[in-house]
Amino acid sequence: MSQTAIICIANIVAIKLAYPQQGEPEIEEVVVWGRSLQLLGTADSASQGVVGYSDFSTRPMARVAELVEVVPGMIATQHSGPGKANQYFLRGFNLDHGSDFSTYFDGMPVNLRTHAHAQGYMDLNFIIPEIIERVDFQKGPYFAETGDFSLAGSNSMKTYDTLEEGFTELTLGSRDEIRFVTANSFDFREGMLLYALEHQQTNEFYDLEQDVRKLNGFLKYTGDIRGVPSRVSFSAYDSEWISTNQVPLRAVRTGLIDRFGYIDPDLGGKSHRFSLTGNFALTENWALNLYASSYYMSLINNPTYLLNDPVNGDEFEQEDRRQLFGGALRNEKEIKLFGIPVKRGIGTDIRYDDVSELNLFNTLSRRRIGSIREDEANEFSIGAFGELQFQVTDAFRTTLGIRYDYYDSKIVALRPQNSGKDDDSLWQPKLGLAYRVNENMELYANYGHGFHSNDVRAAVNTIDPVSGNLTESLDVLVAGKGSEFGFRYDTLEGFNFSVAYYTLKMDSELVFVGDAGTTEPGDPSRRDGIEVTSFWEINEHLVFDISGAKSDGHFIGLPSGENAIPDAHDLVYGAGLTYAGFSNGWTSSLRIRHFGDAALSEDEVIEKSDSTLLHFGISYEQDRWEIGLDVLNLLDEEDDDIAYWFESQLPGEAAAVEDIHFHPTDPRALRLLMKYKF
User: Does residue 1 lie within any of the structural domains?
Assistant: First the structure.
């Protein structure tokens, strides 16, 4: 349990969402269950939502990336050590490390394009969960303001401007886990200054100690800068770890290793990220966001062991170093067209990635013994959008949107034949309809085009750097289009229920290739599914939430029985029961998370079994102190976090063997939390 639910002041945005038809209400102290906010008349789709701090502060979390699991139907898991980006699943997608789901942190994009390990790499380890005030999420390519990596959905995390109380928190967990967090805010010049510090170390549950060391720092100023209302934040992250990747099932069955064993002891990595973001309210209608980030990652991996090199092994290092700059300018205004009230939104966003090291090395015991590729990449993009929402009648509104993106890139490669320049652009129309049936129900229909970008090296490469064979160039921007129909039922008494049926087609699916340890563009695909979400504030102390999604996905153009999308889990659901007894000091939460079985091969002969985990947390708070206990994987289930099907060759094997390679879920774990508020 990262923190108990606290009584906090509802921010103005949340209040406007909750009471859209009223004037400026008086701000009162309330418990902010974001999912209880009535979004009728403000949401543009059945799958759009807001999550307030109390929604996720009460839930036990195994890792920081589980913050995204507050998005209904979202799963965060891992196939390697805790220092790298997680694996994500949503709406039947294996999103790998973030290929089609984007995250924004105080306006800064987290996903990294043309990344050494995986396209769209979304590493959330630099985030301190306790300072996240609100998460806004939306699904599908129906929203003009979101661009790259947002076909399946996106979310925006906003940090607190100020804390009601400072705190220091110490967590002690199984396998030498120690986590220390302290945060506070105070008056500074014409505004407020908030700081937070985090240190975490753990050895995890594997035979090979993971030796995770993570440091996080965060500093934010909120106030006027030369008369402009501003929010400026700085974050610093540094981490180093040893990892146990997925292991072949045959190695466990033959007794070579146990479930938590390892083949190569040299795997792991290190990473840092330093970021500066600024959000400025230039005028009543104009808002400016700026960001700059310096990033580094070195990752040692070896998914195939001795398959390609029986002497030195297949161990390799992926290295990424970049500077990231960008910003966005937004204007929103209410006007009238043909006598109809219209909300007009226009904007533009610019981003520049200067990737000075984009490398792949052969390694032996973490020592570089050969170079496969040493590249540099400069990738510039500019996007522009416009959106008009017509309030046709009191009950009916329609939204028309258009977005345009232009990408320009330059690659300088180790092999001169793989150097070059390329550019690409894409128009994306959007359409949304909403009809208010009555004070409690609203119907929605949405349609839109979107995209994800490919690694820009694929657009200019002519020679495969591993095999030396000729390669075909690929488009930088890959289009997709989707539609959604649904409804939302809300009451003012804290109950809501929503249903959405969706479909999504993509010109090329980004697929994780196990024996290469990265994502590669694949065939076109299509998904259809239905999603159900409900939140019920049973009384002032008891809250219940549940969400589930059932999808059906396949590659387009392949014969039936040979067109399954590997690792695309078609059933996901989660539910939680939370007791928040603020008056008596007790808080507890019981949560279940399930994702169904999945085909690991396109012919569906090989499958991964389903996984169901139950987490429990309880805490007692009194005056200035709090003590709590989390029990993760309460039933001690022996499930798998992830599984793949590919070839590998172990020591002693004469030839390659196709096999399931899996990463086990952590066994039952205990965490003791002690917190002091000041």
Answer: no
